[in-house]
Design goal:
The protein is an alpha+beta fold and 312 residues long. The chain folds into two domains: 4-209, Lambda Exonuclease, Chain A (Alpha-Beta Complex); 223-292, no CATH class. Helix content is 42%, strand content 15%. It contains eleven helices and ten strands. It has helices spanning 13-20, 26-32, 41-48, 59-66, 68-79, 133-146, 171-190, 200-209, 223-254, 279-285, 287-292; strands spanning 4-8, 83-84, 88-92, 99-100, 104-106, 111-118, 150-157, 161-168, 259-261, 266-268. It is globular. It starts with a strand and ends in a 20-residue tail after the last helix. InterPro entries: Lambda-type_endonuclease, NF-kappa-B_Signaling_Reg, PDDEXK-like_dom_sf, Restrct_endonuc-II-like, YqaJ_viral_recombinase.
Length: 312
């Protein structure tokens, strides 16, 4: 018996986005595990609970969708295998919140294919066999839902190269993934916040969720939190001073030299010419035009200052 229920694919992208909010999809797995550099578990939780909208469609996402069929055809050409679209999404019977909207299924194999498009400036060493952890987690998620034995990944690095990989089913990793997804989905069901982390994605989510007002009042913060943050800021300042000291020592040794080398690093110290728009002068000489082109933006600035003890 199949471990999943088949669900007819939505007809529009809007319906697809709405369905994604009803469970955990393959692209969510990496975020839940902390592997997605653009979306933290907290950001994803805010999306799933409706506190913020889904991240806007980027050009990279659009290109990835548009080139999906091309990537699949390139993979078939390279491997001699055949694939087809399913026409359905899949829902785990044992864990109904786990959903899978797969790119392709491989003909004659109990396997699927994930099609990816990457920027030419990617730092991932595909040529060395590296696979982004979020891609790997997505494949494990699909195998967890569908019960399939393996998943293939095809990656088109735009204007550079084409790579493909095979990911074998790993029961221990699948069980670990299911535990983490179950933990995350429990946060969603109970409307309980997951732990916040130090990523830019979480900062962005917090800025979207909370909005200050003049009559919002104040709250008491734990001394442990504030003292730890103040200590870290103090150490950061100290480390920056030490870093500058070492930089200056190297500059002193280099003198007029532009390049320097050691067993650990290549160093350059060269002149750099930059041009900047003189905003102050333009404002002074063209005040009306300056005001016409001002664009208002609102941000919340976070500041923390240590309270000095008063001298007796």
């Amino acid at each position: 018996m199949k471990p999943y229920n088949k669900i007819k694919l939505p007809e529009t992208r809007e319906e697809w986005l709405e369905n994604r909010m009803k469970g955990i999809g393959g692209s969510d797995a990496g975020a839940i595990l902390g592997f997605n550099p653009y979306k933290s578990p907290y950001y994803l939780w805010c999306e799933k609970t409706g506190r913020i909208g889904s991240q806007p469609d980027s050009e990279a996402m659009r290109q990835g969708r548009d080139l999906e069929d091309y990537v699949a055809r390139r993979w078939m050409e390279a491997t001699g295998k055949k694939v087809h679209k399913s026409g359905f999404s899949y829902q785990s019977k044992e864990h109904p919140y786990m959903l899978a909207n797969v790119d392709r299924l491989v003909v004659g194999e109990n396997a699927g294919l994930e099609c990816k498009t990457a920027n030419a400036l990617t730092r991932t060493r595909y040529d060395k066999g590296d696979i982004p952890a979020s891609y790997y987690a997505q494949c494990m998620h699909y195998m967890a839902v569908t019960g399939m034995d393996k998943w293939y990944i095809a990656v088109l690095v735009l204007g550079k190269a084409f790579y493909f990989f095979e990911v074998e089913r790993n029961e221990e990793e699948i069980e670990a993934l299911i535990r983490e997804e179950h933990r995350f989905w429990n946060y969603v069901k109970t409307d309980q916040e997951p732990p916040v982390d130090g990523t830019d994605s979480t900062s962005e989510a917090l800025n979207q969720v909370f909005h200050p007002s003049d009559d919002a009042g104040s709250v008491i913060i734990s001394d442990d939190l504030t003292s730890m943050l103040l200590e870290l800021k103090s150490k950061q300042k100290e480390l920056q001073t030490i870093q500058k000291e070492y930089e200056n020592q190297i500059k002193d040794v280099m003198g007029d030299a532009v390049y320097a080398y050691s067993n650990h690093a290549n160093i350059t110290w060269k002149e750099s010419v930059s041009k900047r728009f003189d905003t102050s002068r333009f404002k002074k000489e063209n005040p009306d035009m300056y005001n016409r082109y001002l664009k208002k933006s609102t941000t919340r600035r976070f500041l923390i200052k240590e309270m000095k003890e008063e001298e007796e």
